[in-house]
């Protein structure tokens, strides 16, 4: 890294010895203080399980195999959960957000993938579910799940982001990264390419197709046929297992890089034209300052966010930290992420953690030594098309404040002298 001389990684022995000192002092209070330990199952306030003592869990047999038969997280991770968005009007027309601040790498566990529903989660029997493909095709066909799963399959890593992710309006200083940016998740999706199925039915020349879901809302979106033939997936599995019900079981459309609402869940029908549905007229359009609306603004543009340190977290002591976050672009690969610790006055290139894939979350990291003074953390991403993530003011100047969709401005976190991290946007 170009700036290694300015911010050298600490010597391993010196770092470990320093860490032990921190854990015995102020850092111990922040990370393992009474308040934190009281919330942990089986917390030992006397420290009997700490070195040089033999911890209690070494003195007895652990839980038997297959207990429970479907694995669940440790009870010590009980706080790592999706959270319902406060703006949701009802419990069925609602959304929940992914705890980005608690995740590692780029894959979102199935149980933490964000949700957005318009009429709740239907309980669908896969044996009775069908996909109808009709319209401008030679052979209109109806496929059962077993028939679809006999087609050649693909497995690809892609993010899905709600176009309502992130806030145009100013958010409270207490907002966390989950509150502000949690309507994005990234998974390995397995299924059959839409192009494979369209070839089977003999698709005729067309510009659009219509995708319809089998929920009570009958959600429908018009999809450019060029996108469908490029990389669209009829997905039936997620991270190695069948889709979760809230993610579209037994079948969903995945349109890599496009706004999440277009990746229609519980997919039951593919048609042949733009239908100007509610989801592409009254909703999911961008009202501009001049009163006109941008329509069919499908692609989620380059964005990044620092997940550590981020809102609601507290740095326990000054010294070495690794700034970490996520970057993505609906146009392709992220090629650069820059990080500023002084509110944008100066920028440094962060390291991009492999794999760096198209239309997929990319983890970035930057070594940083906090001197205990107030800091202002920002990140900005650049994708392979040369598009650079704009700052908030540039975005507002271009689009105004009438829209609730497609916000990708730079996020800033402020770190106070006491280590508390708050939202500054």
Brief descriptors of the model:
single chain, 425 residues, alpha+beta, five-stranded mixed sheet, five-stranded antiparallel sheet, 8 helices, 24 strands, 13% helix, disordered N terminus
Q: Summed up, what is this model?
A:
With 425 residues, the protein is of the alpha+beta class. It is built from eight helices and 24 strands.
Number-wise, the strands total 24
Distance between the termini: 29 Å
Coarse shape: globular
Number of H/I helices: 8
Over all CA atoms, what is the radius of gyration? 24 Å
The low-confidence runs, each spanning 5 or more residues with pLDDT under 50, are 1-8, 10-40
Order of strands, widest sheet: 5-4-13-8-9
Largest sheet: number of strands, sense, barrel closure: 5 strands, mixed
Strand content: 25-35%
Structural class based on helices, strands and sheet pairing: alpha+beta
Q: How much helicity do the residues have?
A: 10-25%
Average pLDDT for all residues: 88
Mind explaining what this structure looks like?
With 425 residues, the chain is an alpha+beta fold. The protein is built from eight helices and 24 strands. A five-stranded mixed beta sheet has the order 5-4-13-8-9. The longest helix has 12 residues, at 12-23. The two termini are 29 Å apart.
Secondary structure elements and pairings:
Elements: H1 12-23, H2 26-32, H3 34-38, E1 83-84, E2 94-97, E3 115-117, E4 130-133, E5 141-144, H4 145-148, E6 154-161, H5 177-181, E7 184-193, H6 194-201, E8 208-213, E9 220-224, H7 225-230, E10 233-238, E11 241-242, E12 252-254, E13 267-270, E14 286-287, E15 293-294, E16 303-308, E17 319-328, E18 334-340, E19 348-349, E20 351-352, E21 362-370, E22 375-383, H8 392-399, E23 412-415, E24 421-423
Parallel strand pairs: 4-13
Antiparallel strand pairs: 1-2, 2-3, 4-5, 6-7, 7-10, 8-9, 8-13, 10-11, 10-12, 14-15, 16-17, 17-21, 18-19, 18-22, 20-21, 22-23, 23-24
């Amino acid at each position: 890294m170009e700036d290694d001389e300015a911010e050298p990684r600490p010597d391993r022995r010196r770092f470990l010895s320093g860490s032990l000192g921190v854990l015995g002092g102020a850092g111990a209070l922040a990370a393992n203080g009474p308040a934190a330990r009281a919330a942990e199952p089986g917390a030992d306030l006397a420290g009997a399980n700490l070195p040089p003592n033999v911890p209690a869990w070494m003195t007895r047999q652990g839980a038997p195999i297959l207990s429970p038969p479907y694995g669940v997280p440790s009870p010590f991770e009980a706080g790592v959960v999706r959270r319902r968005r406060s703006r949701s009007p009802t419990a069925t027309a609602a959304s929940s957000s992914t705890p980005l601040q608690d995740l590692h790498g780029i894959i979102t566990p199935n149980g933490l993938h964000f949700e957005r529903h318009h009429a709740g989660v239907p309980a669908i029997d896969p044996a009775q579910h069908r996909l109808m493909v009709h319209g401008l095709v030679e052979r209109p066909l109806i496929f059962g799940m077993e028939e679809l799963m006999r087609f050649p399959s693909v497995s690809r890593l892609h993010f899905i982001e709600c176009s309502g992710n992130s806030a145009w309006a100013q958010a409270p200083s207490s907002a966390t990264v989950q509150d502000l940016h949690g309507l994005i998740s990234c998974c390995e999706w397995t299924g059959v390419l839409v192009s494979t199925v369209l070839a089977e039915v003999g698709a005729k020349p067309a510009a659009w197709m219509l995708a319809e879901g089998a929920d009570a809302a009958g959600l429908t979106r018009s999809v450019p046929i060029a996108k469908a033939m490029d990389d669209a997936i009829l997905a039936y599995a997620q991270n190695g297992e069948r889709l979760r019900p809230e993610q579209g079981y037994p079948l969903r459309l995945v349109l890599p890089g496009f706004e999440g609402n277009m990746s229609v869940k519980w997919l039951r029908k593919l048609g042949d034209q733009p239908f100007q549905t509610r989801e592409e007229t009254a909703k999911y359009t961008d009202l501009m300052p001049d009163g006109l609306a941008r329509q069919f603004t499908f692609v989620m543009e380059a964005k990044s966010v620092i997940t550590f340190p981020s809102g609601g977290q507290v740095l326990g002591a000054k010294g070495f930290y690794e700034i970490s976050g996520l970057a993505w672009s609906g146009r392709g690969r992220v090629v650069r992420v820059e990080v500023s610790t002084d509110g944008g006055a100066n920028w440094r290139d962060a390291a991009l953690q492999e794999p760096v894939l198209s239309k997929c979350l990319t983890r970035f990291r930057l070594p940083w030594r906090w001197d205990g003074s107030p800091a202002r953390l920002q990140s900005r991403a650049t994708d392979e098309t040369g598009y650079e993530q704009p700052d908030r003011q540039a975005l507002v100047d271009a689009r105004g404040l009438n829209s609730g969709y497609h916000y990708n401005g730079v996020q800033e976190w402020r770190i106070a002298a006491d280590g508390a991290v708050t939202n500054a946007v």
